[in-house]
Design brief:
mainly beta, four-stranded antiparallel sheet, globular, 4 helices, about 40% strand
Amino acid sequence: MTTRTGRFLGWLAAAWAAVFFLGAGVRALADCSSFGLPFTDVTSFCDPIAEAYYSGLTTGTTATTYSPTAKVNRAQMAAFVTRTLDQSLLRGNRRAALAQWWTQTPHYDDAGLGLTTVGTNPQHVISDGADIWVTNFTSGTVSRVRASDGKKLEDWTGAASAEGILVAMGRVFVTGETNPGHLYMIDPSAAAGAVTTLASNLDDSPIGIAFDGVKIWTANLGGSVSIVTPGGTTPWSVSTKTTGFGVPLGLVFDGSNVWATDSTADTLLKLDSNGNILLTVNVGVHPEHPAFDGHNIWVPNAGSPPSLTVVRASDGTVLKTFSAANGNQNGLTAPLQAAFDGQEILVTNGDGGVSLFKATDLSIIGSRPTPGVTIPDGACSDGVNFWVAFNGSGKIGRF
């Protein structure tokens, strides 16, 4: 719970307390004039009511009345809570801390802004909070790019068929889409050089990668998930689970469970700590790389028809599907990866362009073209900007 949400709930409790106790003469303050409130009927709980008023959560029942003893119905409650959520996101994110309040900015293609040349066939990107790391499949390298200005800092070599990428435990982990599959590691504090091989016995063609706080997981196109246990020496221990999997592709951890997309079964699978399937959720055709927004999992489906499925993580309920069939396609064409920046969801479209959605109410923001570069693939957020890997152009772009 955010501080602002907690204050609102405290204000709400205070408002209900006013309903029951004002008539009995219980008052926190005798006069609210020092707060500058326009309400003539407010004489207690002045500070939370002032915060609610000045932050825009409520404007009162009229220009001069707050109606402190009036009941709040369900529709009004929904308005209060959603305004509170938006306020906490607006004031509590990294963009606010950096005083970057603008919502429009020149696209990366205007005057060449925001494009960085990396290796050949960049696949996936991840942020460590300061830098962006990108896997270059054909080059067999991993590039490090400074997020503040897009300058490429260095390349790490020796990552054959570099594909998935993860930041965890102060290190960068990379899957090698080989047979058998490889897991590589980079120490960001060390000088650039060759990656360290942690395991060379993953199942065939690992792509997706996730961390559950204890172990590293990979989704393997060969029909399994591999679970890697960190150790003091290499190679690290690997266990592989094959039961129930078709062609796993993407992975995401929701704080409790790892979820995997099965690209041939058109499903999203909830897994236990040993890789056993707990729940199967039907999504769209050929699900790819999902994102978790703290409540819901956003699954891009690259098959025909292209779509985006939103699944509630707590129980696996499908909340919404964006597609042409539902009249809300929002530019989705061969969607490959979803990313979350704390407020918005960005989805890359393999046929070009990106699609944007608001995470809180599952609404459409719009789609953006990506002229001059091809095959938007992996995506991530650094807390301020989205970054997209353009597989066909050897570049990553900042939005």
